[in-house]
Amino acid sequence: MSDERIKVLFQLQRDEGGYPPADVEQIWAEPLGNNLFKIDNVPFFVKGISCEDIVEATPDSLGELRYRSLITPSEHSTLRVIVFRDSLDTRPLADRVADLRSRLAGAGCLTELSHIAGLVAVDVTAASIENAIRLLQEGENADLWQYEEGALRS
Q1: Could you report the per-residue pLDDT of 49-97, keeping only the tens digit for each?
Q2: Phi/psi at 34 (nearest 5 deg)?
Q3: Which of 6, 45, 78, 141 could form a disulfide with 20 if both were Cys (CB 3.0 to 4.6 A apart)?
Q4: What is the rounded distance in angstroms from the CA atom of residue 47 to the CA atom of residue 80?
Q5: According to DSSP H, which parts of 37-128 are helical?
């Protein structure tokens, strides 16, 4: 991988509750040439994009790269988890998030923390998807967190 990474901007659509809390998400990517970029981090809000996807982006009037289309999807999936502040688990939120990240790592996943307390983005390979979904579903059933599929690939 190249040491040169840049940010590609993805336009977000807010729901009726105002989520996500931004209009644009900036995602690190590796330039491949010809307006193509390989995604190099886990999206927190963008739907349909995962690590290692190849996307097309073009500069806007300010010179910022704006996402245009998904060219080649990777075999990675993106999941997102929000760990509940109030749950039956009385440990501090940071400890519960650290435990979740450790468990996901044990299931073969990579994670990234958001600036939003309790929000974890999860990069899942095809080999790890069943274990990751099972782990997340168990925690959701126990009211420890809620998860969503940002981009599910099999």
Answers
A1: 999 999 999 999 898 999 999 999 999 999 999 998 877 778 899 999 9
A2: 55, 40
A3: 45
A4: 10
A5: 93-106
